[in-house]
Amino acid sequence: MSDKREQFSSKFGFLLAAVGSAVGLGNFWGFPTQAASNGGGAFVLAYLLLAFLLAYPALMAELVIGRHARANVVTALEGVGKTALSRQLGKAVGIYGVLTASLILSFYTIVSGWMVAHFGQSLAQAVHWHSAAHWLIHESLLRNLLVAFIFMGLTIWIVARGVQAGIEAWSTRLMPLLVAILLCLIAYVLLQPGAMEGLRTYLVPDFRQLSDPALLLSAMGQAFFSLSLGVGTMLIYGSYLSKQESLPRLGAAVTLLDTGIAFTAGLLIIPAMYVAQHHGVTIYAEDGSLVAGPRLIFQVLPSLFDSMGAAGIALSLAFFALMSIAALTSSISMLEAPVSVMIERTRLQRPGAAAAIGTTIFAMSALIIFNMNALFGVIVSLTTEYSQPLLGIALCVYVGWVMHRNQVLKELQAGHRGVEHSLFWKVWPFYVRIICPLLILLAFGQSLRG
Ligand code: PHE
């Protein structure tokens, strides 16, 4: 198995794939509104600190285990164990991780399908096919199933093509496109009346709001989700990285780019909301907070686009292309987690495994679509609020307590000469052993109480 194992062709391939995984719907609708309603620039600062002090060390834990084991999350955690018990536990944690990745993908597919639907609506509008445009953005079971199916089909197709020809090739094509669309949209929106007020709300810091511990904890949850932590996606991407590359540097680059794009997304979303307000759209919810989540993306912004005539159609096309791309480069990383387990632990080949697992996850999405009220919220909170932090703790514990310090150092030295004398090596081992698990536990306790 190992001599034929696929690998990213270069560190840029890895970087774009990992950033593609990290940059997703979380960056575009979670981060900006949280920041605007919770202290603006002060929240942005706190988020950056948390991302580097907490999420980055946890990301490093995943990358180290992945590249050390050169295997999927189940085999990797099983292999790191020294005793029968820790091997079995490792295997169980790995399975829990890929199940979580699959469940996240099942609801992510539904929401991403809506992005595809809105993209299709703008296309239909552009060619004056009004009945199709109308059908695509109006809630119906059939519409939800169809667009989720299309999105899952694309995800399966890319993953089935493999690490280099699928994941890497498409991340390298789509991520630069994403950044280009994002920058063009920002340039346009910032020139519209109302935008500057939005910019002020987003950036002017209000440090008083940071004294609320619940806020910091939710910023931490956001950082974990945004960096795709805990579910074995970063681990498997790390396992495809050559031993010649420096893990601490690449991990830092991924964190920096992910947080940078989240920050930049805010420069688009918040000013766009205030431009919408200028056009008469309501942007505050009943309780006085800024509208967030699905209402923001599928009502506030579309009403803005509607009010802008032809330019609105072009903007809407670009915006929903942006969201669909962000979603797709994340969904392929989610599917890769279970697919890699299947192909490395059974005789199934990659295309068959991608199709079988993708179809099963789509069936789960369909189940959620038929029982939206009962299932959607429960699965989101079960996976992102409970499973991801728990898995994050487990992965830190495996690197900090189960792997030998020498093993960890050796892995870090590959591709990073002299790492043993660096600040990273002075701080990080203690961090993953003690600080990360404790802080995640704290956040977890808080979310249980909430
Ligand atoms: N990081 C992605 C986002 O921000 C979500 C994700 C979570 C991707 C877990 C992979 C694994 O949307």
Plain-language structure description:
The protein contains 18 helices and no strands. It has 450 residues and is mainly α. Bound molecules: phenylalanine (PHE). Phenylalanine (PHE) binds next to helix 1, helix 2, helix 5, helix 10 and helix 14.
The radius of gyration is 21 Å
- Separation of the first and last Cα atoms: 46 Å
Ions, cofactors and other bound molecules:
phenylalanine
- The amount of beta strand, in percent, is under 5%
* Quantity of strands, as a count: 0
Helix content: over 70%
From N to C, what is the helix and strand string? HHHHHHHHHHHHHHHHHH
Structural class of the helix and strand makeup? Answer: mainly alpha
Q: What general form does the structure show?
A: globular
Most strands sheet:
none
Query: Count of DSSP helices?
Result: 18
Mean pLDDT: 93
- Spans where pLDDT lies below 50 across 5 or more residues: none
Q: Which features would summarize this protein structure in a list?
A:
18 helices, binds phenylalanine, mainly alpha, globular
